[in-house]
Amino acid sequence: MTTDDVVPADLAVRTRGLTKRFRSGQVAVDAVDLEVPRGAVYGFLGPNGSGKTTTLRMVLGLVAPTSGTATLLGEPMPAAGTRVLSRVGALVEGPGFHPYLSGRANLDRLDAVDATADPRTRDRRAGAALDRVGLTAAARKPFRQYSLGMKQRLGLAAALLRPRELLVLDEPTNGLDPQGTREVRHLLRELADAGTTVLVSSHLLGEVEQVCTHVGVMSRGRLLVQGPPQQLAADAETTVVVSTTRACVDDAARLLADLGLLDVRAEGTVLSARLGMVAPEKISAAMVGAALDLVGLEVRRPSLESLFVELTGEGFDVAR
Amino acid sequence: MSPVEVGTATERTTPPARVRGAFGRLLASELRLVLGRRRNVVLLVGLALVPMLLGTVLLVTRDTAVGAGGPPFLDRVTGNGLFLVLAALVACLPLLLPLVVGVVAGDAVAGEAQAGTLRYLLLVPVPRTRLLAVKALGVLVFAACAVAAVALSGLVTGAAYFGVGEVTLLSGDTVSTAEGLARTAGIVAYVGLSLTGLVAVGLFFSTLTEVPVAATAATVVVAIVSGVLDALPQLSAVHGALLTHHWLDVGELLRTQVDVGVLGEGLAVQAAWAAVFGALAWSRFTAADVSC
């Protein structure tokens, strides 16, 4: 056994060289090394079709990897599935429930088949889970009458039926309105504060960016980067945008270059440049000192959004 | 926010312990799912209507010239209501029972896959072998209910219309009502056990697809093709191994001396089909990627 095979105890999910090649020959997941620290809220990002769901399915033991390994809560998958999965709540590729059973009956079914769930506490736990996602009033309605958002909420309730160490949520905000999306974010933050590790995938960065302590970006089956968002953003460079008047544009451009800014570009009366090591306040002082008109000054730190776009190539033409 | 400890992480070094009676809860949940589903109840009610219909037709036509003839045992029904059980079972065996069992067997795994509930069962987690075993038990119980629905309805209808009395056997010997009832119970049990092979076939098809109707159709096709092959004299060498070949051996129970060997052979063929297709279903289900 090499040291690489030892799973650090502080990782809730770890994969090594995880690869899935479908029978069609398509490589859906290509040598992914996922690392989700315990206690983290890990935003698993990437466009639709980038391999996120297949990666999660392999981590959860639903799909067998072509090569590579996955460990869940320190134990190898899928071998340890029956031991560790009861400590994991999951929502994978949309909710799945019996349409003719009520929301509550569906939760009861899931709890009844759980060998480690105590039937004596089922009422309390199912009631609390439904309450938590705001479905108490609709608990007795048949699942097929639920709206898309209610179905998604029931999926979350199922993941919360028992105390969990790890939640794996695949696109949990699909079908939710902005209010519902906010509620899910709020829920994630609460769960994380209570110590639950959360692995949440999304193709919409904005939905999860605010709650994530870690992000990983997938594109075309590969994990491009992962780590704390500040660290990822710091790798990209800050730019500054200076607005001036037509008469001063040329002089201002020269001034910015003299100050040590790089890639100074003019577009009409707006100048942009890479800030480098220059302090932004020096720019305003220098402009005023040289009697140049300063209409506006903006420092643009690269958002995770722009990084995401840069990494994944934006657009929707990602389906292969 | 409710103060309950839902979803909060608790530091654990050991997995939560099994709570006693886990398999019983799993099985009870499965049976509730299968027997509580309205479609399945409708299927059972439909089967129960067959003997009623049959009995009513015989009652109306018994004094007419068209009263004679028809399927085996039908002409004896008007003399003894017990024969309605046998006549109805024989009438349902070629198509109706395979169809009804095929619907539920085909739905067992494919239905869960189609609804998306299969992946959540596996994530609970329910070990795949245990899940398949419980699915098989659920379908077997439903098949038993299907046979029982025909038999009970036949018994009640037959008794009401024609009365129940001493039973005249195939040889002409007469046995008491009590023995006639016992032999009828044996017939019902044999028919029920004759469906076990088909249940395994249906379960296997159900593991191959996410479309329950496809699994159902394939199952029914197997039963029909088996019946067709059984009718080809050129294939008499393999007839004994066909799924449906021994189904009508139930008549053996109406002989004075019941040849247990004949019945045993029929049950052995069912056991063989159940073993082969059960093993196929298991090897497929425990290895398949669940990507739906």
List keywords for this structure.
heterodimer; A: 320 residues; alpha/beta; Rossmann fold; Alpha-Beta Plaits; 6-stranded mixed β-sheet; 5-stranded antiparallel β-sheet; 15 strands; B: 292 residues; mainly alpha; two-stranded antiparallel ribbon; 10 helices; 2 strands; disordered N terminus
What's the topology here?
The complex is a heterodimer of chains A (320) and B (292).
Chain A: E1 11-21, E2 27-32, E3 35-37, E4 41-45, H1 52-59, E5 67-72, E6 75-77, H2 81-84, E7 88-91, H3 103-112, H4 122-132, H5 148-159, E8 166-170, H6 178-193, E9 197-202, H7 205-209, E10 214-219, E11 222-227, H8 229-235, E12 239-243, H9 249-259, E13 262-267, E14 270-274, H10 280-289, E15 296-300, H11 304-312
Parallel strand pairs in A: 4-9, 4-10, 7-8, 8-9
Antiparallel strand pairs in A: 1-2, 1-3, 1-5, 5-6, 10-11, 12-14, 12-15, 13-14
Helix pairs in contact in A: 3-4, 4-5, 9-10
Chain B: H1 22-36, H2 38-61, H3 82-92, H4 96-115, H5 117-123, H6 128-162, E1 167-168, E2 174-175, H7 177-194, H8 196-208, H9 212-230, H10 260-287
Antiparallel strand pairs in B: 1-2
Account of the protein in words:
The complex is a heterodimer of chains A (320) and B (292). Helices cover 32% and strands 26% of the residues of chain A. By secondary structure, chain A is of the alpha/beta class. Chain A folds into two domains: 3-234, P-loop containing nucleotide triphosphate hydrolases (Rossmann fold, 3-Layer(aba) Sandwich); 237-301, Alpha-Beta Plaits (2-Layer Sandwich). In chain A, the strands form three sheets. In chain A, strands 7-8-9-4-10-11 form a six-stranded mixed sheet, with helices on both faces. In chain A, strands 1, 2, 3, 5 and 6 form a five-stranded antiparallel sheet that branches. The relative contact order of chain A is 0.14. Chain B is built from ten helices and two strands. In chain B, helix 1 crosses helix 6, helix 2 packs parallel to helix 6 (128-162) and helix 6 (128-162) packs across helix 8 (196-208). The two termini of chain B are 34 Å apart. Mean pLDDT of chain B is 88; it is low at 1-12. Chains A and B meet through helix 2, strand 7, helix 3 and helix 4 of A and helix 1 and helix 5 of B.
